[in-house]
Amino acid sequence: MSNTFVMGCASVALSLAGAAAHGEPSSRAAVYLDHALSLMETHALHRDTLDFGEIRARAFALAQDARTTQETWPAVRAALASLGDNHSALLTPDQGPHPASLEAIAYPPGARTLPSGALIEDALAYLWIPGHAGGDHEADAAFADALQTLIFKLASEAPCGWIVDLRENPGGNMWPMLAGLEPLIGDGRVGAFKPPTGAPTHWWVDDGAAGSGDAAQAASRYAVTIEGPRPVVAVLTGPTTASSGEAVAVAFRGRPDARSFGEPTFGVSTGNRGFRLDDGALMFVTASRFADRDGQVYGGKVVPDEAVVAERALPAAATWLQAHARCRTMRR
């Protein structure tokens, strides 16, 4: 999920639409709420089909007694819920000083936060990719480094196929995941954010880095290269695979010698823009859909190539890999 942070609050007249009919919030609360609603109206994914007059009126009715900006938060959340994307949200300052993403607050203490891997079935490299809730440069680099290190170690065993397990990945910051998986995804454009109108903003990976447009968003301090032919990759998904986890799944779509297994993803294959409001709250507004390298646009559940219950995805992927010409050749 991509985030753009915008500070500040617009200066507007006190005669705000919808306020007079439902009482008078304080001027500060009214300006704050108007600013949040204006951001939604400008950036929301479904903005062309929404009645923002009604959304605004309902929000001001909910906030009619608000004296502080904090007292408008229920109205802001109600307006975000009415956008119909199931991904927009408001994070308050006590949910983290600088959360990198909507999912950054969802990880319980003690949860595994770095990827792990092993050689299985004698010739298959298995990678478990958790969500990444980091937000600072060091945490992001550490995640990408851990992935590149795992890939380097497993590649030394000369596996005939690779398994990328996203079944327990609820999202977070997509860029360290893509940067770390660059040796398997392959360099170049691997996906995009597609707004309702206008050109897409492409995702790319290159030499251990990942980004969008002209900006690098995360990078590993290593740049691992897998010698020989392009790796054959099976991607595992399930109903817990969400948001940035879905972005990683999409990044493998359209890649030759890659196939996905499991159940459809959670269904928020959409990009959010993050706006820092003037009391420190962070508002996420869903503004785009994911698209793969071939231009197919998503926005909901990402359906795997082979549908099997999530618990059977790993053996199904292993069977496909072992039947692939690469593994058959290595067994001779």
Question: What can you see in these coordinates?
Answer:
By secondary structure, the chain is an alpha/beta fold. It is 28% helix and 21% strand. The protein contains nine helices and 13 strands. The strands form two sheets. Strands 1, 5, 6, 7, 8, 11 and 12 form a seven-stranded antiparallel beta sheet that branches. The chain has a six-stranded mixed beta sheet with strand order 2-3-4-9-10-13, sandwiched between helices. The longest helix has 19 residues, at 137-155. It is elongated, with a radius of gyration of 22 Å. It starts with 26 loop residues before the first helix and ends with a helix. The model is unreliable at 2-21 and 104-110 (pLDDT under 50).
Query: Uncertain regions: pLDDT < 50 for 5+ in a row?
Result: 2-21, 104-110
Compute the number of strand runs.
13
Distance between the termini: 44 Å
Structural class: alpha/beta
Instruction: From the alpha carbons, calculate the radius of gyration and give it in angstroms.
Output: 22 Å
Let me know the largest β-sheet: 7 strands, antiparallel
Q: Which percent range describes the beta-strand content?
A: 15-25%
- General shape: elongated
Mean residue pLDDT: 88
Write down the secondary-structure element order: HHHEEEHEHHEEEEEHEEEEHH
Overall helicity:
25-40%
How many individual helices?
9
Chain oligomer state: single chain
In short:
Helices cover 28% and strands 21% of the residues. The chain has helices at residues 27-43, 52-62, 73-81, 137-155, 174-180, 182-185, 244-252, 313-323, 325-331; strands at residues 89-91, 116-120, 124-128, 161-165, 188-194, 201-206, 209-212, 215-219, 233-237, 258-262, 270-276, 282-292, 306-307.
